[in-house]
UniProtKB/TrEMBL annotation:
Gene3D superfamilies per the UniProt record, alphabetical: Phosphoenolpyruvate-binding domains (3.20.20.60)
Naturally occurring in which organism (per UniProt): Halogeometricum pallidum JCM 14848
Homology family: Belongs to the HpcH/HpaI aldolase family.
InterPro entries: Aldolase/citrate-lyase_domain (IPR005000), HpcH-HpaI_aldolase (IPR050251), Pyrv/PenolPyrv_kinase-like_dom (IPR015813), Pyrv_kinase-like_dom_sf (IPR040442)
Gene Ontology CC annotations of this record: cytoplasm
This protein's name: 4-hydroxy-2-oxovalerate aldolase
Higher taxonomy: Archaea, Methanobacteriati, Methanobacteriota, Stenosarchaea group, Halobacteria
Keywords: Lyase, Metal-binding
Molecular function, one GO term: metal ion binding
Matching SUPFAM superfamilies: Phosphoenolpyruvate/pyruvate domain
Domain HpcH/HpaI aldolase/citrate lyase: 19-243
Length: 260
């Protein structure tokens, strides 16, 4: 893990944070990724079968692993109940997909802050020590929680400056695949219109003094997307790491068998 401020204070980081995507619903996988030393593990509940119960155990696995790896959960949607139940599990950060307007971003902040600043309900859950540390939790949560929103459409890019300016939003996330699809430029990472959209999001975040990040699933993508000027990078996906390692072992085994 790099020497950095962490997700909750990512704007103060000296170097980009590096995390990895977790899609396999298994605490052991989460623990392994944390032990490797990523700055954070990003858990995906938007496109995976990870349940709240499994997510809670995956978060425990990250917290129990040696080192200082943090946890980010990409929630399924921006419904206040979804946000509340996820935050009760105690992640370091949340990432909300498909955010397109400043009004939507403001609603996310409102739903994730306790009264009087917001309307999040207080539960006797993991985040509050199951009720044993309610007061401390309420007093410190705003300083220890990070909120990220994912911009992945042309409409989101058009509203990037207003979204970035919403109080309580700590960072933007460029969803490259969906953004390229929205622009009818699927996978055309060097397309001028696509790069223009990315640049606008990056500039909007930095002008607002907040972080911006994205996903990269290969060595070439990591190099290119760090050149975008991002502050954090999700460097690959657990299932793809598994597939790549398994394929390499199979190919190597077949190669050495030919020598005999």
């Amino acid at each position: 893990m790099t020497e950095n401020a962490g997700l909750a204070h990512i704007a103060e980081a000296t170097d980009p944070l590096v995390g990895t995507w977790a899609t396999i619903p298994a605490p052991a996988t989460a623990e392994l990724l944390a032990e490797i030393g990523y700055d954070f593990v990003a858990f995906d509940q938007e496109h995976t079968p990870i349940t709240y119960e499994t997510m809670e155990n995956m978060l425990r696995a990250v917290d129990a692993a040696p080192g200082e790896t943090e946890s980010l959960v990409r929630v399924a949607d921006d419904d206040p109940t979804t946000l509340k139940r996820t935050l009760d599990l105690g992640p370091t950060a949340i990432l909300v997909p498909m955010v397109e307007t400043a009004e939507q971003a403001a609603e996310i902040v409102d739903a994730s802050r306790y009264p009087p600043e917001g309307r999040r309900g207080l539960g006797l859950a993991r985040a509050s020590g199951y009720g044993r540390s309610l007061s401390e939790h309420v007093e410190t949560v705003e300083d220890s929680l990070a909120r990220f929103v994912q911009l992945e459409s042309e409409r989101a890019v058009e509203n990037a400056e207003d979204i970035a300016a919403v109080d309580g939003i700590d960072g933007l996330f460029v969803g490259p695949v969906d953004l390229s699809m929205s622009m009818d430029r699927f996978g055309e990472w060097d397309d001028e219109e696509f790069i223009g959209g990315v640049n606008r999001v990056v500039e909007a975040a930095h002008d607002a003094g907040i972080a911006v990040g994205t996903l990269a699933t290969s060595a070439d993508e990591r190099e290119a997307r760090l050149d975008w000027g991002v502050d954090y990078l999700v460097a690959g996906v657990d299932a793809m790491h598994l597939a790549s390692g398994a394929a390499d072992a199979l190919d190597h085994s077949k190669e050495i068998l030919k020598r005999e």
